[in-house]
Design brief:
globular, binds protoporphyrin IX containing FE, two-stranded antiparallel ribbon
């Protein structure tokens, strides 16, 4: 189905022009984030919210074709956040969810979200040009006009996809970046090595691009280690067996719900030595080249692997390198270093609240 393919290509940044467009948006957003942090003038601050806003702006660009100023959050984002908070907790993945989640409140939030998205669709209709597909909403308008699969491309489904993209694409990547700063302030030697690579390959005169990554093995290894140690999605999405199957001597009946324990795989000492230690070097061979591992599954595996993997990897690389190109991050005087292993386990794995100082390089 052409429409579905296009939607996949749009979000997974598979097509070349899209990739270029996304790269530019991420580079611009990384600069806005740097400017925002610069306003702190080296004083202690919490990077939490501004990282969240920078990352959610990337999804806003994919979906609505626009970013928002960090002080001017559109109504939709707090409404979405509240809906996520209501649905949070380990039991939300079980059948008990309907007794735990306050459904009346949830439904009123869903109503509000739906009407906000509808307003955006209407705004897009007014300036729609089929030869210039700016974002996800335009793509939706295009496929509905072409009357392809009207039962699939309903406004309700579009609403659900948009909510999914914000849910899956914001806190995950934002938490990866929040963890990356935790590890950098706790491991100044690793931070310095990344900065040396940045200085050598990128310098101070331009912003990072994805082509740089292949020439920056220590930086790549550092990002891989953040993805591994700080598994932001500890448990994969629920799936079900399509037929009765046998695994390690256990019979699993058809239709059984299966949750992948990604955290366990990434912290198993048989897969990774000293699994709770932050060791970017584990990803480098004797020649300093990055080694891959089939145990490295923070995005899960198989046909339902994370749809946003490509986008998330681009964001992690460009945001991380731009931040370290501009600043050295430190634990503020008199404050305890942040916890690099334990964190808050909600739908995604978040570091405990912490402050940093960002010293301009
Ligand atoms: C560090 C960042 C991210 C991590 C670690 C991550 C991880 C994951 C994992 C583990 C899954 C579950 C796969 C499964 O069901 O087995 C998933 C699904 C998904 N992710 Fe991500 N993700 C990240 C960023 C993103 C971004 C930026 C987007 C949006 C563009 C996104 C969109 C999705 C979607 C739509 C799914 C559901 C795919 C499906 O069910 O077919 N993710 N992700």
């Amino acid at each position: 189905m052409e429409g579905t393919e296009e939607i996949h290509a749009l979000v997974s940044s598979r097509s070349r022009p899209r990739k270029k467009k996304f790269t530019k948006s991420i580079q611009d957003e990384a600069r806005y984030l740097v400017q925002n942090i610069e306003n702190e003038n080296g004083k202690a601050f919490s990077p939490r919210d501004r990282i969240g806003k920078a990352v959610s702006n990337i999804i806003s660009i994919v979906v609505f074709g626009t970013r928002y100023d960090y002080n001017d959050t559109p109504e939709m984002l707090p409404v979405l956040e509240e809906a996520v908070r209501l649905g949070e907790g380990p039991l939300s993945l079980t059948n008990l969810a309907r007794f735990i989640v306050p459904m009346k409140k949830m439904l009123s939030l869903v109503d509000r979200l739906y009407s906000l998205i509808r307003q955006e669709v209407d705004r897009h209709r007014q300036s729609f040009d089929p030869t210039d597909i700016r974002d996800f909403i335009d793509l939706f308008i295009k496929v509905t006009r072409e009357e392809e699969d009207p039962e699939v491309y309903t406004e309700w489904n579009v609403f659900r996809i948009i909510v999914d993209l914000y849910l899956a694409g914001t806190d995950t990547t934002a938490n990866t970046l929040r963890w990356s700063l935790v590890h950098m302030v706790n491991h100044p030697d690793a931070q310095k090595r990344v900065q040396q690579e940045i200085d050598q390959i990128i310098g101070q005169g331009r912003v990072a691009k994805m082509e740089d990554k292949a020439r920056m093995p220590f930086t790549e290894a550092t990002i891989l280690e953040v993805f591994r140690l700080s598994t932001v999605v500890p448990v994969g999405g629920p799936h079900a067996t399509s037929e009765t199957t046998n695994l390690a001597g256990y019979t699993i009946p058809k239709g059984t719900v299966i949750l992948g324990d990604l955290y366990r795989v990434l912290h198993d000492k048989n897969n990774f030595e000293d699994p709770y230690k932050f060791k970017p070097e584990r990803w480098l061979d004797d020649d300093g080249k990055v080694v891959k591992s089939d145990k490295m599954i923070p995005f899960s595996i198989g046909p339902r692997v994370c749809l946003g993997k490509g986008l998330a990897e681009m964001e992690a690389f460009i945001f991380f390198t731009t931040l370290l190109q501009s600043f050295t991050f430190k634990v503020p005087e008199g404050e305890k270093p942040p916890d690099g292993v334990e964190g808050l386990n909600a739908l995604t794995f978040t570091p405990y609240p912490y402050n940093v100082c960002a010293v301009r390089r």
